Amino acid sequence: MNDSELDRRLAFAVAAAERAGQLALRYASDPAQLGIVAKGLQDVVTIADRAVEEALRHEFAGAFPGDAVLGEEDGLSPGWDRKAPLWIVDPIDGTANYARRLPLWCVSVGLWYDGDAVAGVIVNPVARETHAAARGRGATLNGRPIRVSAVTVPTQARIGLGFSYRRPPALHVASVERLLSSHCEYSRLGSGALGMAHVADGRFEGYFEPHINAWDVAAGLVIVREAGGFTNDFFAGDALERGAPILAGAPGLRGFLETTLGDLMRS
Length: 267
Description:
Layout: H1 3-28, E1 37-40, E2 43-45, H2 47-63, E3 68-71, E4 75-76, E5 86-93, H3 95-99, E6 106-113, E7 116-124, E8 129-134, E9 138-141, E10 144-145, E11 158-161, H4 169-181, E12 185-187, H5 192-200, E13 206-212, H6 214-226, E14 230-231, H7 239-242, E15 244-249, H8 254-265
Parallel strand pairs: 3-5, 11-12, 11-13
Antiparallel strand pairs: 1-2, 3-4, 5-6, 6-7, 7-8, 8-9, 9-10, 13-15, 14-15
């Protein structure tokens, strides 16, 4: 994919994700009509999730008919051969928050090509914030450049943590205990995409989750890297199909995070 094609896709993704965020807000204005359905332990889906993903799929098919889509709700486009660009979409990341009228949710749109994420957009319509990046272009928040935190000591840091019942709760407990034992603070937002966005803009010094799906993190990988942060090689294995652990952060805390949490990624 050449530079102009990447730029065109990023610009389109920003506009499409912002429209998707407004659609989700319209559904949220009438919570009684959300049609909340449980699909797993502490995991729900709403009518809005499906409508937003459908709208994004329609937009990408119209603008880039040769591209494929992997979405949380409707899976992978049939016939994708890994040579075409792949849009990786979470229509509402943080659905449990969304269903409870908590303002910690977002629309996440990542672009995968030739083995890795190359562009990403994370839109929080409640906060009116759009994080965006493409490989080699830097990262922005509402169009302005952003950088990761300059903090280098754990006692001044706050790490975002994620949790899923796909992994034993003991891993989450261990991550909390290890951080607090180092006098390092933590937060759990309930949205991995927002956690990654907040690493990129310096609100968090890191983000860790023992298992996360590709649609939750594809956009954030690019945004964090382009903001000067580090991430593990998330797509090295079969993360597209099965998910993987994620560790991301500011470079000044890389050694601390890898030493403190690295073995939990392999559990």
